[in-house]
Each structure stands twice: as C-alpha cells, then as structure tokens.
C-alpha cells in the first residue's frame, strides 16, 4: 500500500526505477544468468586485483568491509553482483531525474534505460569481480552531485566524502562530478528560479566542493600509498594526473569537444556503434536547435541569464567528455560520462516553451521516443557483446580441453610429470574459427578474437578453472635453448608435444 501511494505521488521516480530495472534485465540478462570470464576476470575470480597502486584505495576499503560482513574470500558472482549493481544504477537514475526535475514519464524511462544499457556498463559486467564496487561508486558520485545541488549544511561535507570515495573506486566517474551540477544549474536558469546572486553563490559552493573532492582524493591516495609502501603505477597514465603540460591538456580539451560533436568510429572508445552514431548525432543537432530557441527566448527577457546559459552550455561537452582531458588513452569502459549527453538532450527538450501546450507535449514525446529507440539499440548491442564472449569462452574451453587430452596422450605421460609450455602467449593455430560477423564489437573486454582469448596473460588460470587441467609447471627457460626443443614444430602440429626426459614440453 505504501509503495503504491509513493508511486502515485512521485510517478516520475517510480517509472524511472522500474524502467531502469527492466532495461537492465533486458540489456544484461545474459551477463546475470551466465558466468563469462575473460581478460582480468580469468585471474580475479577469487581476488580483487590491483587497488591502491592504481589510485583505487576505496576498492581496498570496500573489500575489507565486505569480509567483515560476509566473511573472508572474494568471489566473482554474476547474479548477486549483477542484481545489486542494477539496483544501484536504478537509484542513481532516480537521483538524476529528481535533480533535473524531469516531468515527462517517457523521458524519465528513456534516461533510466540509457543509464543502465550504456556500453560502459556492459563492459563493467565483463569484470564481474569488481562490478558491485563500481556500481556503488556510480551511485555515490550521483548522490554527491545531488547533494552539491540540493544538500543543506552538512550535506555538502557528505557530498565531498562521497565524491572522494567514488573517485577512489573508479576515476572515470569524475565527469559526473562536473556534469551533474552543470545540468542542475542549467535547469534553475531555465526555470527562472532565484536571482543571479543566489545562483553565483550556489555555483561558487559547487566549485569549492569539487575542489574539496579532488584534494581529499589526492590526500587519501598519498596516505594509502605511504601506509602500504607503494607507488602509483602507469596504467592509463594514472601516475601522471595533474603533472601533464598545459599544452597537452588544451589538446585533450579540444578532443573532448570533438568527441561530443563528432565522436570517433570503429575505435576502442566507440560508444555509438552502428546506426546509434546517426541517432546520437541527430540528438546533438536537436540540442543545438533547442539551445538556440532557449537562448533567444531568455535573451529577450534578460540578457545576463542568456549569457550564463551560453557559458554553461559551452561547458557541457567538456564536462561529459572530461575523461579525454584526464587520460591520454581512453577506452569504452571509461566513457560513462557521455551518458550525460542524453540528460542534456532531455533537459533542453522538456524546457522548450511553445504557445500551444500540445506542441510542448509532442516535443517531449518525440525526445522520449528517440531515447527509447536508443535504449533498444544499446540493449541489443550489449547482448551482442555477451553473445561474442559466450562463443569465445566455449571455443576456448574446447581448444584447451583438446590440448589437455593431447598432453595426457603423450607416450610415457605420468600425471606427476611437469609440463613446460614454450612461447607462452604466442599461440598460433590456423584452425581457429574467426567470427567476422562480430568484428564490429570493439568494447573492452569483448573486443578480441579467439586467438586473443587463448593468448591472454591468464590463459593457464583459464585452463585450470574451466577445463580442470592443472599440471605441475616447469620453468620454460630451462628448456627453450635445447636442440630438441628448437627442432620441435609448433602446436598444434604433430610432434609439438613431446616427453623429454622427465618433462612434457609443449611448443606453442
């Protein structure tokens, strides 16, 4: 009864919550009900991986808290991790809808769908062992943005703490820290709420809190590095944050704007695959039309407000694509900030003013339809990613099972004999099947071929866990220069597996 009453009072939030969960199940149902293990997830089924040395000290803290709650051990669990993550994303979508004051139920549903079906989320499902932490970090960053705009008193300090912890899990959520306050500021200017003095006071407080988030993050990073006697690693330039030259940052800022208006295609950061590219460019074009109408209308009323709107609108491409300024190399997992492009589109569409109310409703319905179509296309793309990794995982299991069978079939084989794998991560097999139909998928970690899957740095762990073959491993350096090994053909050719003395040698 209480749920029904709440849904009637806040239909926008109810629709957002339900849509996020439904779209999440459609987009990621395969990831929820199957265990896919590729890339880092192969070796991190029962561990968390790199944390503090990547500037992700909050991952370490969360893992520690999880052991207190559930007991020792870390597990990559698709169903429980996935459902918890979808709930976090659904709550985050509700916060964004409330922050922007969206009224059109179709727009609310569309934004919720985009937030859960965006390719970066499908990519995170490929790293199931950290997915719930990242989803919680997304919720914390969204709540941070909400508090920066609507929080009172201690709420600002809580916002700084939440933002700091979110960045301490995943730095790629930083674009949300800038985008959400910008969108809220746009909404209050468009709605004509308050005066310019209160607006500038709010904006100054937001900037101060954002700086507070970064100061706290860097301070916490230094604390944890010193505590565990570690240094930041060079992955994705994390150790260069804040130390890159001004000229480089300006070039990256230019790239951020370029990616907003005309993003790269067929690259590792392509989040508008296939016809989504044209649909997204159409929405950006409509952004321009909607923004121009609003600027002209506000300019007639008050020029200073129109100028402020123009400045904020000019900053939005930079905010959405801030990751391009932060990192020299960007891949699909790092692009979640571009979700705010959809939020901007809906905000501008809903705030359009027309003489006839029916026209206003039609514009909102048209915007919701476009975003709904994008949601369906993204959900389809996510399922294609899962289809590809499903094929490759089954093929890798078959290939490695055959390898184990041939090793055990070697004349003189005993299960206590060590196995030396020569030329590891250099497997070449012309009989490997290549699915050209799925080559368009370039999203990490689904972007490789079967050969990349077999040559993963964790291939032995995959063979042990998915094929059950775990021999004693010999040091290949002790045998690589032997004449008998040099004369061996390469696997899978006949003679590529031989028993040499008291060791089985496999020459990849």
What does this molecule look like?
The chain is an all-alpha fold and about 500 residues long. It is about 65% helix and about 5% strand. It folds into two domains: about 1-370, no CATH class; about 410-505, no CATH class. It has 20 helices and three strands. Strands 1-3-2 form a three-stranded mixed β-sheet, with no helix packed on it. A hairpin with a 2-residue loop joins strand 2 (about 495-500) and strand 3. It starts with a helix and ends with a strand.
Report strand %: under 5%
Give the number of helices: 20
Helix-strand pattern:
HHHHHHHHHHHHHHHHHEHHHEE
Major β-sheet profile: 3 strands, mixed
If you compute it from the alpha carbons, what radius of gyration comes out, rounded to the nearest whole angstrom? 26 Å
Please tell me the total number of domains: 2
Mean pLDDT: 93
Quick description:
By secondary structure, the chain is mainly α. It contains 20 helices and three strands.
Topology:
Elements: H1 2-9, H2 11-33, H3 40-43, H4 57-70, H5 78-100, H6 105-117, H7 119-125, H8 131-150, H9 154-167, H10 174-191, H11 196-227, H12 246-261, H13 276-301, H14 303-320, H15 322-326, H16 340-350, H17 357-408, E1 419-422, H18 450-454, H19 459-467, H20 483-486, E2 497-500, E3 503-507
Parallel strand pairs: 1-3
Antiparallel strand pairs: 2-3
Helix pairs in contact: 1-2, 2-5, 2-6, 2-17, 5-6, 5-8, 6-17, 8-9, 8-10, 9-11, 10-11, 10-14, 10-16, 13-14, 13-16, 13-17, 16-17, 17-19
């Amino acid at each position: 009864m209480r749920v029904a009453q709440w849904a009637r009072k806040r239909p926008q939030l109810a629709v957002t919550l339900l849509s996020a969960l439904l779209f999440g199940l459609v987009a990621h149902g395969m990831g929820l009900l199957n265990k896919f293990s590729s890339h880092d997830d192969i070796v991190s089924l029962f561990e968390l991986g790199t944390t503090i040395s990547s500037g992700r000290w909050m991952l370490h803290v969360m893992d520690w808290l999880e052991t207190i709650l559930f007991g020792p051990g870390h597990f990559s669990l698709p169903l429980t991790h996935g459902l918890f993550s979808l709930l976090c994303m659904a709550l985050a979508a509700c916060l964004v809808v409330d922050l922007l004051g969206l009224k059109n139920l179709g727009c609310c549903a569309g934004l919720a769908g985009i937030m859960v079906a965006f390719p970066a989320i499908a990519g995170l499902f490929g790293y199931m062992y950290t997915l719930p932490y990242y989803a919680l970090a997304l919720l914390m960053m969204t709540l941070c943005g909400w508090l920066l705009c609507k929080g009172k008193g201690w709420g600002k300090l809580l916002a700084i703490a939440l933002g700091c912890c979110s960045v301490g899990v995943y730095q790629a959520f930083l674009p949300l820290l800038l985008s959400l306050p910008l969108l809220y500021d746009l909404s209050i200017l468009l709605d004509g709420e308050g005066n310019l003095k209160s607006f500038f006071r709010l904006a100054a407080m937001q900037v101060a809190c954002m700086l507070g988030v970064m100061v706290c993050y860097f301070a916490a990073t230094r604390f944890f590095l010193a505590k565990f006697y570690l240094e930041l690693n060079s992955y994705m330039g994390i150790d260069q944050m804040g130390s890159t030259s001004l000229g480089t940052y300006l070039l990256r800022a230019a790239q951020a704007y370029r990616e907003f208006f005309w993003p790269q295609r067929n690259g590792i950061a392509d989040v508008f695959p296939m016809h989504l590219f044209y649909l997204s460019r159409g929405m950006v074009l409509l952004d321009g039309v909607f923004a121009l109408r609003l600027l002209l209308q506000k300019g007639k009323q008050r020029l200073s407000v129109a100028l402020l709107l123009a400045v904020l609108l000019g900053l939005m491409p930079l905010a959405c694509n801030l990751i391009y300024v932060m990192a020299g190399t960007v891949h699909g997992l790092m692009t979640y900030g571009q979700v705010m492009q959809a939020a901007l589109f809906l905000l501008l569409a809903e705030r359009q003013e027309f003489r006839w109310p029916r026209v206003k409703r039609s514009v909102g319905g048209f915007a919701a339809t476009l975003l709904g179509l994008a949601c369906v296309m993204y959900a389809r793309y996510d399922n294609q990613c899962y289809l590809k990794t499903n094929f490759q995982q089954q093929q890798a299991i078959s290939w490695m099972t055959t390898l184990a069978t041939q090793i055990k079939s070697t004349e003189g084989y005993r299960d206590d004999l060590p196995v030396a794998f020569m030329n590891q991560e250099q497997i070449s097999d012309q009989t490997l099947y290549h699915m050209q139909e799925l080559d368009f998928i370039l999203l990490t970690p689904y972007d490789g071929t079967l050969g990349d899957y077999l040559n993963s740095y964790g291939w032995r762990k995959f063979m042990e866990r998915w094929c059950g073959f775990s021999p004693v491993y010999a040091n290949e350096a002790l045998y690589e220069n032997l004449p008998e090994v040099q004369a061996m053909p390469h696997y899978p050719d006949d003679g590529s597996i031989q028993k040499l003395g008291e060791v089985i040698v496999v020459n990849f």
